[in-house]
Design brief:
MetI-like fold, 4% strand, 15 helices, single chain, two-stranded antiparallel ribbon, mainly alpha
């Protein structure tokens, strides 16, 4: 057969058969085999890098449409005169006239407050606050990690706090009257301070192994389930000294003729109490989660080493819950500046304009078509 002939013919050819002879195939470059997977991985990596921005694009466009565009529109409207005309309205550019009216014109006493004449006590308090701000800036400048952005940010913060300090010191004493800016700041910072302190105390209490802690956790959350308008009406009845459910208590205390809404600070205090009562559960439930997520081993080790409860809280518990606390306070700051339900329902902004917040002030102006100009 031909096959046998071919084998016999190649039997004496050392180049055709022998030890290590491999039949002839098409040769493949090993480097090309390695390059093919590398190209595929490169394409996949490039696609993954582009996939993130592509998937985020719809959300970014929605955010621009719902946030940035209204912000730019509001900025333009603040520089224009708004007038209702046949078939709609007209906008006429007036520059900074609206801001002059707000800060230096007819709206100044409503917005910033009525300024009292300066006294030695006023200047002493203001000087102490300015010195505290100067120390704050000096400590940052002495730090080795000083950046231009950080310095500018702290300068702007110090300038804003200094301006607020001047406004507060000249509207709180000697016949001064708070404006909507300072009233809102009182609502926000005093309210959040007590909400956090009370919420942290209740959270630390209910994470302990005490009887009925699950029941109290549910009870402490009830105020947050009520709408702000419902809370406002409830506290409006509670503070009514003539017909409210606490009338016997007010009579026993001799406060029958007292009215919360006839006194500026009494009305503000009532609104603060209602706001603290409603939003403390929010602080409470988040802080409970933060406390329970901490490991108990460091606390047990500190107890064995002789640390007391305050030292454990200061050096172990507090650093652990600080990031959560900062985020929690930031969320409440954003929400607290929008307060409108409580002063609207409880006091209708009174007495006078003593309890009006910035949002409520804007609502009243829009309702009266006072939108600039």
């Amino acid at each position: 057969m031909n096959v046998k002939h071919d084998l016999n013919a190649n039997a004496h050819d050392p180049t055709q058969i022998g030890l290590g002879h491999v039949p002839s195939y098409d040769t493949v470059d090993p480097e090309s085999q390695e390059q093919e997977p590398s190209r595929i991985h490169t394409v996949i990596a490039a696609a993954e890098r582009r996939a993130g921005p592509i998937f985020l694009l719809p959300s970014v466009l929605a955010l621009l449409f719902l946030s940035v565009f209204p912000l730019i529109t509001s900025l333009y409207v603040s520089l224009a005169r708004f007038k209702i005309a046949r078939g709609g309205f007209t906008l006429t550019f007036v520059g900074l006239d609206n801001y002059k009216k707000l800060f230096l014109g007819s709206e100044q006493t409503h917005f910033l407050g009525a300024f009292a004449p300066s006294t030695p006590a006023t200047w002493i308090v203001f000087s102490i606050l300015v010195i505290a701000l100067a120390v704050f800036l000096a400590r940052y400048l002495l730090n080795a990690r000083v950046s231009v952005g950080g310095l500018i940010g702290r300068l702007l913060l110090a300038l804003g706090l200094g301006t607020l300090a001047w406004i507060f010191t000249h509207t709180l004493w000697n016949g001064g009257r708070l404006g909507t800016v300072t009233v809102t700041i009182v609502y926000v910072f005093v309210g959040i301070f007590f909400q956090y302190i009370i919420g942290l105390g209740l959270a630390m209490l209910t994470v302990q192994n005490i009887p009925g802690r699950r029941f109290f956790r549910v009870v402490f959350l009830l105020p947050m389930m009520i709408t702000p308008v419902g809370v406002a009406y409830m506290f409006r009845m509670l503070t009514d000294t003539s017909k409210g459910p606490f009338t016997p208590i007010w009579q026993a205390m001799g406060l029958t003729d007292f009215s919360w809404v006839n006194n500026a600070w009494g009305a503000r205090t009532a609104i603060l109490i209602a706001d603290i009562w409603q939003w403390t559960p929010f602080m409470f439930i988040v802080l409970v989660a933060a406390l329970e997520s901490q490991s108990v081993e460091p606390m047990e080790a500190a107890t064995v080493d002789g640390a007391n409860q305050w030292q454990i809280f200061r050096h172990i518990v507090w650093p652990g819950i600080l990031p959560v606390s900062m985020t929690l306070i930031l969320i409440r700051l954003i929400e607290a500046f929008k307060i409108i339900d409580l002063p609207n329902v409880m006091t209708n902004g009174g007495p006078g304009t003593a309890t009006q917040s910035l949002t409520y002030h804007a609502f009243i102006n829009w309702r009266g078509l006072d939108v600039g100009g």
